[in-house]
Amino acid sequence: VHPNVSHGCQGGCATCSDYNGCLSCKPRLFFVLERIGMKQIGVCLSSCPSGYYGTRYPDINKCAKCKADCDTCFTRNFCTKCKSGFYLYSGKCLEKCPDGLEANNHTMECTSIVHCETSEWSPWSPCMKKGKTCGFKRGNEERFREIIQHPSARGNPCPATIESRKCIVQRKRCQKEGKGKKNKEEKRKKSNKDESKETRQESKGRAARRQNREQRENNNKTQPKKRKAPNREQDLAPVDTAH
């Protein structure tokens, strides 16, 4: 260490020198040596850089290097990420995964082998031929199942998800598409015609009722009012002439 030690340092250093950089760090900071050419310079960081792990001591916090095959680590014996060409397993970096495990080239880890899983078969479909369920005696029916879990690279592959078998049914005639459309069109026209007929009848009924009402009102206006007949019994009553 260079004898010229200073206490007025910058960058988190507690003590430093012009030649060696930081000699000690402020509380909670980590001391690490960085190589620049042939010499090493001390620096103080809030966290250790990649390839190092931190250890705390009563007098100083230091960053130490991970193992050569480890890119990042928690301690020297527990790696969290391996360098290229190695696979991570239980904190260690391996060139080859143990038996029962497979190498995942995406995460660069040793993972469990996953086999394919499928659902139960669906019920058999109706007997069909060329997409129709009529006009034949011998056809085919199918059933399906879905893939629940896709396999990993070394897992058992998925089986078939569709099964087909021959079937025999009682032949039935297919209804012609044109005839069916024609019948539907005729029914629709007939329904519209009946609705129009009912509408016309209702309109005629309303018009007739309105005309009768107007005729009665006109008759009441033109017919002279009847005079009240005199009370003949009152006119023929005897006159008292006693006085």
From TrEMBL:
<comment type="similarity">
    <text>Belongs to the R-spondin family.</text>
</comment>
<feature type="compositionally biased region" description="Basic and acidic residues">
    <location>
        <begin position="178"/>
        <end position="219"/>
    </location>
</feature>
<feature type="domain" description="R-spondin Fu-CRD">
    <location>
        <begin position="11"/>
        <end position="110"/>
    </location>
</feature>
<dbReference type="InterPro" id="IPR036383">
    <property type="entry name" value="TSP1_rpt_sf"/>
</dbReference>
<dbReference type="GO" id="GO:2000052">
    <property type="term" value="P:positive regulation of non-canonical Wnt signaling pathway"/>
</dbReference>
<keyword id="KW-0879">Wnt signaling pathway</keyword>
<dbReference type="Pfam" id="PF19028">
    <property type="entry name" value="TSP1_spondin"/>
</dbReference>
<dbReference type="GO" id="GO:0005576">
    <property type="term" value="C:extracellular region"/>
</dbReference>
<comment type="function">
    <text>Activator of the canonical Wnt signaling pathway by acting as a ligand for LGR4-6 receptors, which acts as a key regulator of angiogenesis. Upon binding to LGR4-6 (LGR4, LGR5 or LGR6), LGR4-6 associate with phosphorylated LRP6 and frizzled receptors that are activated by extracellular Wnt receptors, triggering the canonical Wnt signaling pathway to increase expression of target genes. Also regulates the canonical Wnt/beta-catenin-dependent pathway and non-canonical Wnt signaling by acting as an inhibitor of ZNRF3, an important regulator of the Wnt signaling pathway.</text>
</comment>
<keyword id="KW-0325">Glycoprotein</keyword>
<keyword id="KW-0358">Heparin-binding</keyword>
<dbReference type="GO" id="GO:0008201">
    <property type="term" value="F:heparin binding"/>
</dbReference>
<feature type="domain" description="Spondin-like TSP1">
    <location>
        <begin position="116"/>
        <end position="170"/>
    </location>
</feature>
<feature type="region of interest" description="Disordered">
    <location>
        <begin position="178"/>
        <end position="243"/>
    </location>
</feature>
<dbReference type="InterPro" id="IPR000884">
    <property type="entry name" value="TSP1_rpt"/>
</dbReference>
<dbReference type="InterPro" id="IPR006212">
    <property type="entry name" value="Furin_repeat"/>
</dbReference>
<protein>
    <recommendedName>
        <fullName>R-spondin-3</fullName>
    </recommendedName>
</protein>
<dbReference type="InterPro" id="IPR043601">
    <property type="entry name" value="Rspo_Fu-CRD_dom"/>
</dbReference>
<dbReference type="Pfam" id="PF15913">
    <property type="entry name" value="Furin-like_2"/>
</dbReference>
<dbReference type="GO" id="GO:0016055">
    <property type="term" value="P:Wnt signaling pathway"/>
</dbReference>
<keyword id="KW-0964">Secreted</keyword>
<keyword id="KW-0677">Repeat</keyword>
<keyword id="KW-0716">Sensory transduction</keyword>
<comment type="subunit">
    <text>Interacts with the extracellular domain of FZD8 and LRP6. It however does not form a ternary complex with FZD8 and LRP6. Interacts with WNT1. Binds heparin. Interacts with LGR4, LGR5 and LGR6.</text>
</comment>
<dbReference type="InterPro" id="IPR044004">
    <property type="entry name" value="TSP1_spondin_dom"/>
</dbReference>
<dbReference type="InterPro" id="IPR051514">
    <property type="entry name" value="R-spondin"/>
</dbReference>
<dbReference type="GO" id="GO:0005102">
    <property type="term" value="F:signaling receptor binding"/>
</dbReference>
<keyword id="KW-0732">Signal</keyword>
<keyword id="KW-1015">Disulfide bond</keyword>
<dbReference type="InterPro" id="IPR009030">
    <property type="entry name" value="Growth_fac_rcpt_cys_sf"/>
</dbReference>
